[in-house]
Amino acid sequence: MTVPTSQLRASFAATLSQMYGAEVPAYTTLVEVTSEVNRECAGSDRLGSLARVTAERHGAIRVGSAAELADTADLFAAFGMFPVGFYDLRAAKSPVPVVSTAFRPIDPDELDANPFRVFTSMLATADTRFFSAELRARVDHFVARRQLFDPALIAQARRIAADGCPRAEAGDFVRRAAAAFALSRDPIDKAWYDELSAVSAVAADIAGVRTTHINHLTPRVLDIDELYARMTARGVTMIEAIQGPPRTTGPAVLLRQTSFRALAEPRRFRAPDGTVFDGTLRVRFGEVEARGVALTPAGRARYDAAMTDPEHWDRYFPDDDTAMAAQGLAYYRGGDPTKPVVYEDFLPASAAGIFRSNLDSDAAPVQISDESGYSPDWMSGAIDHHIHDPYALYEKAAS
Predict the structure, then answer these.
(1) Is 375:91 a contact under the CB 8 Å cutoff?
(2) Is 11 exposed, middle or buried (0-12, 13-18, 19+ CB in 10 A)?
(3) Nearest to 296 by CA among 394, 186, 371
(4) Domain formed by 2-244+258-291+350-398, architecture
(5) What are the 10-residue block averages of pLDDT along the chain, 399 residues in total?
(6) What are the sequence ranges of the domains in the chain?
């Protein structure tokens, strides 16, 4: 007898949450305040039941190569999580040298059962604006020599994705999968880490260590402005702004995000002479999100225009769902404006904004043309998994 995939996924999300809370205690505070706000705001299930919203998380991890991303895809497939969308954070206002996808459920019933997502970024070493040929060769060599996942774990994940997970295996499989994303306490080569930090703090976090780890784990809140105020009142230092669309009296759209500032965590380092010493790194933070209705391509074009003029949001979007549906700006199940389709994905500008708000310095790419060739088709071929189009999934959910 096999475990339902949604149950396996829920267990995976809960185990990661427990692990991350032990590693980053401020995350536990964030979850507590989020739950408090959600209980007070409960009363409408238009954008998801209270049970779903309370359990909802998205995680973020970073890998160093297409081979590592392919293993990640195989692992997440066992939990019913598939790559959706292609995000190029190199094109953001504050560029980050990564391309990304999000692993998540794609079936509406699976999303309702447990909508766990993991935003997964891959270091873009082929982009010569960030990496010289010499540095790329050394980074690629370093990444190729490490092993993020036990090959036996990936082989088991492939079997589970194909045939389901026997109940007798479920607990151990979930524990081993979650443990692959625990923060390593092994000493970090300080000179190598610093060299990569000069390119980007994200590059150092990815390829300056021999493991990957949860970079942040994000609960969903029903009132992000209230959450921001309450976290600040508790003495938690938040980033300077909420990323994404402004607060509005009309329907919430897409995604709003914020986070507490990355905390200085104790890490061990190795000096060039082999000496091991204690220090700190500030790379992990606590993000929180509020989700709205998914926009159609026409709605997204309207959104992009509105974000250049956010003080006049009402000039771009109507103030009720009926008008949103009538103008074809957002997705609603069966065209019924009382049944909005929740936005399940991410905004590259917001993701880059969160990354940037928690870094000490920007990446400084060389001003030359990009000939790296990264694209959705490239990623799909590199990891041997179809990259799902978010709009096609929303069209299906709305039909």
Answers:
(1) no
(2) buried
(3) 394
(4) Roll (3.10)
(5) 96 95 88 92 75 90 97 98 95 84 96 94 94 96 97 98 97 98 94 94 93 93 93 86 89 92 88 95 85 96 93 93 97 95 89 60 62 91 97 96
(6) 2-244+258-291+350-398
